[in-house]
């Protein structure tokens, strides 16, 4: 089976000034994750590697690029899931951890639990030898500017990024490896100017992340409360189970969610046979995927660029 990896770098009203950095970032993320698959690595390792790169890139709302809560702090969510046995792990309201996606994987592999939160998640990280960063070291200059803009002029928190510069969703990856196994991973800093302690869809299995080798794998991005209410990731996988293609399932589910709840989102999907599904009802979503020597990417509606690499 030919492996494939898809990543997204967040859905929202991404300004023109940030388009180039988003495209560069998702293409590099795919390159890193696909290298794992090319070398015989697992889908799980590939999605973790791809997301870790975006957590280090200030261009994305995850890890170092995370937006800030009302107190000016970074609080992050992440989740990861494997399709072979439906094992999953997640963390929420985590502080001062460089790679929340790797901590979510530790929850999956080293605890009997699905989700660890706040101080408990940070305590677990310390017990696992994860280095604690200096408080405030994940606060980027652009995130500080975005929070100040929000505090001075407000913003519509029901539509990611409309009035809050830099507030552009989430990062995620889905992969199918050469053994036919699926995995999905998602990581976020949440919504600019959120209340302290707010959790997002990203930490909810079935909303932000889902993977089932019998049907498909999904990572979502966009307005978290809406995605969570609609159980978007699981809804897309169920549509595949009912006979839809990955693209049909992704597109139809997002249109239904937006029509019902009047907020936007995006998703990347892989079916069990490696067919991609990519769609968003937001203004933009940065995405890229690689299969073999072909790289596809885009950010605007109906955009699909192809490179041979």
TrEMBL record:
A Gene Ontology molecular function term of the record: beta-aspartyl-peptidase activity
Positions that bind substrate: 198-201, 221-224
InterPro entries given in the database record: ASRGL1_meta, Ntn_hydrolases_N, Peptidase_T2
Positions of the record's site feature: Cleavage: 169-170
Keyword field: Autocatalytic cleavage, Hydrolase, Protease
Keyword Lipid metabolism: no
Domain of life, per lineage: Eukaryota
SUPFAM superfamilies named among the record's database cross-references: N-terminal nucleophile aminohydrolases (Ntn hydrolases) (SSF56235)
Active-site residues, record numbering mapped to chain: 170 (nucleophile)
Gene Ontology CC terms: cytoplasm
UniProt keyword Protease, yes or no: yes
BP terms from Gene Ontology: L-asparagine catabolic process via L-aspartate; proteolysis
The reaction(s) this protein catalyses: L-asparagine + H2O = L-aspartate + NH4(+); Cleavage of a beta-linked Asp residue from the N-terminus of a polypeptide
UniProt family annotation: Belongs to the Ntn-hydrolase family.
Subunit and partners: Heterodimer of an alpha and beta chain produced by autocleavage.
Function: Has both L-asparaginase and beta-aspartyl peptidase activity. Does not have aspartylglucosaminidase activity and is inactive toward GlcNAc-L-Asn. Likewise, has no activity toward glutamine.
Protein name: Uncharacterized protein
């Amino acid at each position: 089976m030919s492996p494939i990896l898809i990543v997204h770098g967040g859905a929202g009203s991404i300004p023109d000034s940030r388009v180039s950095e988003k495209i560069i970032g998702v293409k590099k993320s795919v390159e890193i994750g696909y290298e794992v698959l090319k070398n015989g690595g697992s889908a799980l390792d590939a999605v973790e590697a791809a997301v870790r790169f975006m957590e280090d890139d200030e261009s994305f709302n995850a890890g170092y690029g995370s937006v800030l809560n009302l107190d000016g702090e970074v609080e992050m969510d992440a989740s990861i899931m494997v399709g072979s046995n439906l094992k999953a792990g997640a963390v929420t309201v985590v502080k001062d951890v460089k790679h929340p996606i790797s901590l979510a994987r530790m929850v999956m592999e080293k605890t009997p639990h699905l989700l660890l939160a706040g101080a408990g998640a940070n305590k677990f990280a310390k017990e696992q030898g994860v280095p604690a960063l200096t408080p405030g070291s994940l606060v980027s200059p652009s995130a500080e500017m975005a929070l100040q803009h929000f505090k001075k002029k407000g913003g519509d928190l029901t539509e990611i990024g409309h009035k809050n510069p830099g507030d552009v969703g989430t990062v995620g990856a889905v992969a199918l490896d050469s053994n036919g196994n699926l995995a999905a991973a998602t990581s976020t800093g949440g919504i600019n100017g959120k209340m302290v302690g707010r959790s997002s869809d990203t930490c909810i299995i079935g909303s932000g992340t889902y993977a089932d080798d019998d049907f498909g794998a999904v990572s979502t991005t966009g307005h978290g409360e809406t995605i969570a209410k609609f159980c978007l990731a699981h809804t897309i996988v169920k549509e595949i189970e009912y006979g839809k293609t990955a693209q049909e399932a992704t597109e139809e589910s997002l249109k239904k969610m937006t029509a019902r709840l009047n907020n936007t989102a995006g998703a990347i999907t892989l079916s069990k046979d490696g067919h991609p599904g990519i769609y968003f009802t937001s203004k933009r979503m940065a995405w890229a995927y690689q299969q073999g020597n072909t790289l596809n990417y885009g950010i605007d509606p109906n955009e699909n660029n192809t490179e041979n690499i």
